[in-house]
# Entry
Amino acid sequence: MSQTKHISSAGEFTTLLASSRVVVTDFYADWCGPCKQIAPVYEQLSAQLSRPSKVTFTKVNVDQQTEIAQTYGITAMPTFLIFKNKQIVETIRGADPRKLSDVVKKLAAEADSDGSAASGGFGESSVATWLGASLPKGYSDVTDQVDVRGLDLLNADSRLGNARTLFEGSRPSSLNAGKGKTKSNDKDIKDWVETDTDEQLMLYIPFQSTLKIHTLHITSLPQKSEEDDEIPMRPKTIQVYSNRAHVLGFEEAEDLPATQAITLKPQDWDEKTGTAKVELRFVKFQNVTSLVVFVVDGDGSGEKVRVDRLRIIGETGEKRELGKLEKIGDHAD
# Structure
């Protein structure tokens, strides 16, 4: 018997996220053919894997619950979001029964096995998120500490992804079939961000806890779109500001000294994943509660810059030995 809960309000959804360790959510529409095709698979998973207070399956009608759909940046149906401890750990766009089944079954098994865990995040035991570059020794992906509710993004093309898109744990769709071509059931997926009126982009990133940030992984997979003949550029000049209370205006940012300015070169981008590792001066990024990332220009003469993913690499705010800290800082310089 199905245990799926049909969400009737944003408040109900918020309450449910707090009451169940894992929440699987199907964002659908009544007119969506692929949604109807995968619905029996979803209901079967719900009947098999639902566990009170551990694993809960929900459905959100995007036409009836527009506030929820907008909050999570839903632009294509079906979209499945999987939450663990109120944080998104997996996003699946399109009717992909095998991937949906594999991801949900793995998380359900983890929910059963880690019931005694006291962690407030989803930690190392959760399903792995996609990374476009290797991690520096001794540091981990702390992107789960991004407070997605407070994200702010300026000068982004509204027809494409939003700020939340940049922090999705899924593999960029442009890598799925190579050369930027997506699978047939994912043809409407636009899981990246492009600038709108010019090449500049301003992103405000608040964190749920104090972080020490070592590296940024920036993924950019430029390709020609059907709507526009211009191929977007990759970011070239980036200015990073730490511990700002809100997003900066473009003129304001140009007048403020950045915590660090970075110029990316063509060889910095990984040929297979389109990811550049931006190493920060670690001593300057201690006790960080927020970042502003300002893309000043792109690596060409065009007017659009594209970013697919952004990962934050470092550690949460536990104390480090001063000697070790100074050694890392000297090395970073």
Remarks:
- The mean pLDDT is 84.
- The chain is about 20% helix and 30% strand.
